[in-house]
Amino acid sequence: MPTMNVLLSDNEVRALGALVEKEITTPDYYPLSLNALTNACNQRSNRDPVMSLTESDVTEALEGLRDKRLAREVSSFDSRVPKYAHQLADAFNFDRRETAVLCVLLLRGPQTPGELRGRTERMYAFDDLPAVEAALHHLAERQPPLVRQLPRRPGTKESRWAHLLAGEVEAWEPPPSVPDAPAEDERVRRLEAEVEELRKEVAGLKQQLNEFRKQFE
Asked: Which domain range does residue 70 map to?
């Protein structure tokens, strides 16, 4: 039985997410060859961040996933090219809802339940937001938890959720506070006063220069 307490690298996260996605969305072309998996990892759509992995990077990621029993090489009588499949179901015994949610979190990072509902549609059609939230809570209640809810950002209605297969996710930090209006006004007044002093000095220098020139006229 694969260990539940895994810690994946960024490349392993991308490779695992891509394998899960392609098994559900393009089953006729699954399992994937190394070339197909590399292309899936480097897709420009439905990926955040967009990556540029080499086949060597993906091979290393697959080796890590196999060591953690999350992927395996598949032999086939009709193909001489090695192909690869994930073992997420063996590792965690997910249902289709949990698989879809975790897959999108692996491929696109922290997201709100609303974003997850729209982006999991090709893998599982959730009836409503409470259904998405129920799947997230099931994942969060695993031991150890596989996802967690991040603190809500100011000005947003929904909190984002993040997977924990690559370790703890840093919470959003608020930006440095903006100086309050009175302090800012005082700084502007000081600058204006300094500019006025410089103008007076320049005017005085011009007058001295004119008087010096008159001595030679």
From this structure: 10-163
